[in-house]
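request received
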Amino acid sequence: MKNNKITERTSAGLCSALFEEFDLLRNGQSDPSRASAVSKLAVQIINTKKLEIEAAAFHKAGLRFVPLALTAKGISIGGK
Amino acid sequence: MMDMYEIQKFLHSTKHPETFNEGRKRILDLLEEISQVYKETMNKTVEGLCDICGKGNTSDIFKLKDLVPGYKRRPNKSPRLCYNHFCGWNLSLTKHQFDTVYKKCHAAGDDTKKLSYFVTQSEMHSKYGLTDEEVDLHFATYLSKQLLKEAKLYKLKEIA
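response:
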């Protein structure tokens, strides 16, 4: 099924995308596997967003973040 | 600001009924009018179907709601939910709100023990309550759980 509609990248946009999936499932245009995949993807997006909100709160409180990166030699701290 | 307690006391007083008869009657009429408007507003039926399950009004009690908790500041964006989903969402939001307030209080160093008192709880809610973005995000969580449930139900129906 080809869908060219672009989802609005906000929490409200995610809600409307999920509502759309409900409609498709009810109308028989989608199947349970697809609905389940959409739901799991939504959970991942939500968790990322929650982490962002928490990080923003910590940043506001004055906490400094040190970037971590996985390299071939191991974990590099502070981007070095 | 009117003090409702004072008004009730005045309505129930029998000291000078002949003097305040006219005033009492007017207040009683106004109260009756307010009660009528309240009943009409509360008992209005919402047309349409539930945004989650696609069901309509099933009875006079189990009605569709077009204004759900968390969206009272922006009624235009509120989803339309059937009674069962309305109750589920209400419960989920209340729990999430309490947890968030508790967490925010703890982070801000407020005395979280005060949360056990209802009055203080409402104060805390106004201070550390959920923002619109947080409500939307929690609603998305609720929707994704419902979608997973619905998908499982459809799968079971397919097998049967």
